[in-house]
Amino acid sequence: MAWNEPGKDDKDPWKNKGGNNQGPPDLDDLFKDLGNKFGGVFGGSGGSSSKSNNSFPSAVIILAMLVAVVVYAYSCIYTIKEAERGVKLRFGEYVGLVEPGLSWKWTFIETIIPVDVQTTRDLPAAGFMLTQDENVVRVEMQVQYRVVNARDYIFSVTNADDSLSDALDSALRYVVGHANMDDVLTSGREAVRQQVWAELDSIIETYNLGLLVVDVNFKDARPPEEVKDAFDDAIAAQADEERYIQEAEAYALSIEPRARGRVKRLEQEALAYKQQTVLDAEGAVARFDKLLPEYQAAPEVTRQRLYINTMEKVYSNTSKVMVDVDGGNNMMYLPLDKIMTQQQNAPRVIQQPVQSVPQSVPSKVNTSTGRNDRFNSGRN
């Protein structure tokens, strides 16, 4: 049976037990009761419904405003790192750079974009390229750069890093396209690197990217796999050529000083010989000048003396003497070398045989000088 049937008033769930049948509670009364309770919490009086209705919204609003102010103030504080520079925007318009440290900005009005200006970044580039002599090579290169102007880096182009990558690829293909394959693979690598660097600087200068190219590294350049072995042999042969050239230069550097020293020594010896010859000639002239008056005074005596001195010099340089015996066809041979050797070893023993020369010998030999006195006197 339903609770609201006639005659069943005692089963009404909304029936006031105090005797007043007022029906279900009103929502306004429910909110008033809650307001009274919260009003007492925030300092309001729970006995007055009008005061509680006024104090509750104001307290909530004040509390919300305080929280919002604290959150906003916290959001306005920011920090720029030592290696960064901050690009400040006010309503999207550039207003300046922010130095490293703790700073303040107006949230929702100003925006800060931090940019790293000290870190060196790497950008690789690689690909198959066509050389001037119509050969295909694969070239790998790496560029090191850093940001030098934060404003240009953010606003000059849409993406400065992508623009630099495109510029590097363009410069690399331009330089390789104007070079021969041998230069790219072997001896011209340094020249290609320098040309790519210069071409890249000229390209990015017109775009004002705010970037500075620190270095360009030529990492690798190789031919296609089909001809790689042949080019490896060519590179090895070129390396051997350079090594041989360096060895030859080192040998030349070691030989040249010795040759120069030998030439200098020969020059000094030639000068000394020249001076000696001149002095000897001058001495001979001086002797002749002294001898001339003596010859003019006694020609025969001077002639004999000159002859004797000359023969003495001649016989002093020989150890064998042939003596022509007067009045016969026999010629006597005197082994002066053996006689002098025996005289040096045993002079007392050698002295007696020399004195007992037979009378048939027409001359006497002077063993000390090797001169035949009789023969010389006969010639005189």
Automatic annotation (TrEMBL):
> Main site of residence?
membrane
Extract one GO molecular function annotation from the record.
peptidase activity
- Limits of the Band domain: 75-235
Please give the residue ranges the record annotates as the region Disordered. 1-27, 344-380
Q: How does it sit in the membrane?
A: Single-pass membrane protein
Tell me the keywords, alphabetical order: Hydrolase, Membrane, Protease, Transmembrane, Transmembrane helix
Query: Which residue ranges does UniProt annotate as crossing the membrane?
Result: 59-80
Q: Which BP terms does GO give this entry?
A: proteolysis
State whether keyword Protease applies.
yes
Q: Could you give the subunit structure recorded for this chain? A: HflC and HflK may interact to form a multimeric complex.
Which PANTHER family does the protein's record reference? MODULATOR OF FTSH PROTEASE HFLK, STOMATIN-LIKE PROTEIN 2, MITOCHONDRIAL
Q: What is this protein called?
A: Protein HflK
Lineage of origin? Bacteria, Pseudomonadati, Pseudomonadota, Gammaproteobacteria, Alteromonadales
Gene name of the encoded protein: hflK
